[in-house]
Amino acid sequence: MEEIFKPFMSQPVQDKAYVRLATANIGAVIMPFMIFYQQSAIVDKKLSPKDVHIARVDTIVGSFVTQGIMCAVIITTAAAVWEKEGPRNLNSIEEIADVFSTHLGEEAGKVLFSMGLLGGALVGGLVVSLTAAWGLGELMGLRRSLEYKATEAPGFYLTYTLMIAFGAVVAIMYPNPIELEVFVEILNALLLPVVLGFLYVLAYKALPEEHRIKGSYALGVAILFSLCCGVALYLCILETIDAAV
Q1: What is the rounded CA–CA span in Å between residue 239 and residue 15?
Q2: Alpha helices, DSSP H, located in 86-153
Q3: Which of 33, 79, 221, 234 is 20 to 30 Å from 113 by CA-CA measure?
Q4: Which residues cross the membrane (predicted)?
């Protein structure tokens, strides 16, 4: 048990690579655009105040399941690498795939890794593209629902398609996809305080009185948001300093 908790008490913030990945991890786990996606998806589903409870349960369960899977993959990969070679860097998708192939067999390992990578990419691409399409549609007053056909909401579907195409082109042309992914997640961490700040203000002041957060619950949310934003900003500052040195 001591071996499990010991690393949590000693964080190597002087290690540039660690700070970079820690910052990216925050941006990957608490993605700002996911907040916009969820609000737009709830509107698109035409959920009402009576659905708030089940929507919260859905969010909580989904959060624990997805992070549980993420932790399982990270721990499994780290254990496999450590057992074979000790500490080392994984700088390409091919190197990560080879880790799984070592224990599952070359073909099975690559197939399972590819399936996981494809699944994550499809979900991520769907969320980001829909968020942009919903957001632009709301800004410009366009029809913006998946219930409409393409002929009924051409602006919405055009934005959605262009976002997917743009993401595909960038992913294909960028020489190092892992470096690109880390950069995007660091950008997410940098934007997190702005998004969570506005979200808190909306929940505290802009919602109808009966739905506003109040009292100890509001205080708890403020503390939690402040911790997340504080750590994100701190790591972003360290990353900026390290990059400038």
Answers
A1: 10
A2: 93-104, 106-140
A3: 33
A4: 17-37, 57-82, 111-134, 155-174, 186-204, 216-241
**Residue 157: how many other CB atoms lie within 10 Å:** 19
Q: Are 155 and 142 in contact (CB under 8 A)?
A: yes
Exposed, middle or buried: residue 102 (CB in 10 Å: 0-12, 13-18, 19+)? middle
What residues have CB less than 8 Å from 46, skipping those under 6 apart?
A: none
Each of the 245 residues of the chain gets a pLDDT tens digit; together they read 566 666 667 777 677 777 888 888 888 888 888 888 888 888 888 888 888 889 889 989 988 998 888 888 888 777 777 776 667 777 777 777 777 777 777 788 788 888 888 888 888 888 888 988 998 888 888 888 888 998 999 999 999 999 989 988 988 888 888 888 888 888 888 888 998 999 999 999 988 888 899 999 999 999 999 988 888 888 888 777 776 66
What is the rounded CA–CA span in Å between residue 175 and residue 207? 45
Q: How many residues does the chain have?
A: 245
CA 189 to chain centre: 9
Please give the Cα distance from 169 to 203 (Å, whole number). 38
d(CA 63, CA 136): 27
CB-based contacts of 70-76 (< 8 A; 24+ apart in sequence): 70/29, 73/116
Helix (H, G, I), strand (E, B) or coil at 48: coil
- The Cα 110–Cα 97 span in angstroms is 6
